[in-house]
Amino acid sequence: MPLHAILLEAVRVARSPVWMPPDGASHGPALDHLMRWNLIAFCLCFLVAHAWLIAAVLRKRTPKRSMAPNALPWIILIALCAMYVWMAVTAQRLWAENRFVGPAPAAMQIEVVGEQFQWYFRYPGEDAAFGTTRPELVNAAEGNPLGLDVRDARGKDDVVSSVLVLPVGREADLRLRSLDVIHGFFVPGMRLKENAVPGLVLHVHFTPSVIGTYPILCSQVCGSGHARMQAMLSVVSQAEFQEWLAARGRARIEEGAP
Amino acid sequence: VRLRVFTTNHRELGTLYLLLALAAVIAGTLLSLIMRLHRVWPDLALPFFGTIKPEGYLALVTMHGTLMIFFVLTTAPQIGFANLVLPEQIGARSMAFPRLNAAAFWLTALALLVLLAAFFVPQGAPISGWTSYPPLSAVAAAGPGEGAGMDLWLASIGVFCLASWLGAVNMLVTILGERRVGMTWPRLPMTVWAWLVTSILTLLVFSVLLAAIILLFSDRHFGSSFFVPRGDLINGHIVGHGDGSPLLWLHLFWFFGHPEVYIAVLPGMGLATSLFANFARRRVAGYRVMAAMLVVIGLLGLVVWGHHMFVSGMNPYAGTAFALTTIAIAVPSTVEVLGWLAMLWGGRLRLRTPMLFALGFLSFFIAGGLTGPILAQPALDAYLHNTFFVVAHFHLVMAMAGVFSIFGGIYYWFPLMTGRMMNETLGKLHFWITLIAAYGTFFPMHFSGLAGEPRHYERLTGPVTSFSAIAANERGITFSALLLASAQLIFLWNVFASARRGPAAETNPWEATTLEWAPEMARGRVERGPYEYEILANETNFHPQWEMASKQE
Lengths: 258, 553
What we know:
The complex is a heterodimer. By secondary structure, chain A is of the alpha+beta class. Chain A has helices at 3-15, 28-58, 71-100, 238-255, and strands at 108-115, 118-123, 159-161, 164-167, 172-178, 183-187, 192-196, 202-206, 212-218, 231-236. A five-stranded mixed β-sheet of chain A has the order 3-2-1-5-8. In chain A, strands 4-10-9-6-7 form a five-stranded mixed β-sheet, with helices on one face.
């Protein structure tokens, strides 16, 4: 590759700013703020340390007057430790807000199920209760990818979708499951990641705040189709959501399958 | 030095270990280049490989990680360099158990062969990454490579655990029992402190890894269910009959996996300290603090494993506890870095090639270390976990810092291995290209990670996202990686040409003070510290550890 092409490429890389995708969740701005400050603080540390290092390399003579470096490293150490404490405390506050406290009782329940290499989303329907599922009943070809047990009446109105549709401004409480191996439920635009672990039901909750579509990725290597195990989150208005859910519910009753 | 294959001589074994690590690093690097090319041009047909299938890419990732972490970063700086110089540095004639030592090397070589054999069995190498999370790794039907390939992986790492134990027992007994009269704890070179800590860590954590591997093997073949939950449904068959937990594997694996990182990087820290003292001609200010911090890092390293599991389903309160221990480990690391920066501040550094690589080690240790506290915050890690930000972090702080310390050690101890010096001009050229290309390769990965690009993605364009914003960034990384790998040809040429025709080395070419450079006849009591360098007016002076205290000039 000729040199000018490499230079052009370098300019192109430098000109395309790469950052987190736009945030669409209500807890996102605080997290983005924290991320920005952390990156700025550590960039400064990196630059100062390297300025020091380069200066040390370039020095040809030891200064006659001692720099009295004995106190300086300790001062820097204490300052850095104070910064670490600040980081631990601020980040902990955010973590506790999201993970120590459960969702509000009014939050909408949705089940997220990962399987090689597909995400499924189940809405409990009008009875607000999920029907029983059993792994031996799983049969995606016959329209029952989650193994819903028809003997359980609570499952009759469950809606299973391959798109996650959420109404804007309403808290969503996800119950994450996996049928087979560990998957990672990652929605960069919602600043949300939690593994889906077989044998466990894990809850995460968040409130989408901006209407739009957001990619859902798998962030834990799960087999040969890992990179294409993606789905779409669609955040819509409350009215649109009701309409979509009702249509899906009707379709399920007509077809007798999700 | 003549090199016999079946030897019990520790220095020859050290060289053999380094050659084994060289073979592994060449293989691992080639695998990573194929990965880089595939990520940028997914439809490119490569000679021998053809176009790469998704499972082929994941097999490359798995084997790259396994080769580099176990057979390069665990092997070379620890048991490789320790065999080369540890007995001499403490004034011993040899390692405590020479035949055990040879057995450990041959087990390591066997483990490497078994691992590489995984490429050649039906369905190829495993695809579950070097962390091998079950149930993917527990069930052959979960994916290509999870059958025979995974069994070979488990066998290889099991044998590697045994070999590491033997090596660690040998190092530990040598350090505890074979020191020459007068080689007290405060007179140990910092490398020996590091090997002391890593050998204790190796004994503790490789036992847990071996146990975990045996449990996983048992799940695969003997019908147990340690890691597979009830009702687990893989490829249309219910495989979970007991009530196991995949999280158990994560705990066992990371209890090993995190200290493993320190096993890889602590010897580099010890070596950098020695090289800074030598090439700055200064004592190590705060020697006792620096040594103590190596021990503290090792101890704290045993209680931070949960920071790999913030989003794994582990209790969020446990996440907080592990976040605190992890932030705490930043303190001794910061002390080490400040200690080094203070040592260097006096200037007048002798910028020979080993020193340049030690400075490079420091640069990467800082660059990669600084993102550690970011990833230690569960709230931020809940976004960054398993993205390229993490790939950038550990390639800088573990891989590049580790590799630069290995290069530093090879340039520095080459005269001991061959009686010849390496070429300085080629060494400096190698250093500068490698430094720039390594930053060019791994620094931009932070941005891919911030954009949300997960690890282990064989292509950027998926059903709902194209990651088009990072395509240019990714291309830059690939070009830089190609440059980084090509620059290593300079090193290979330098090593093999200098070993044959390099200028003959003097007995103590770096004017060093530690005992591996002592002339043959020096066999007295040790009466000095390891770093007695001083600068008087414009003259520098030094007192090697083999010099009698009464004979001061």
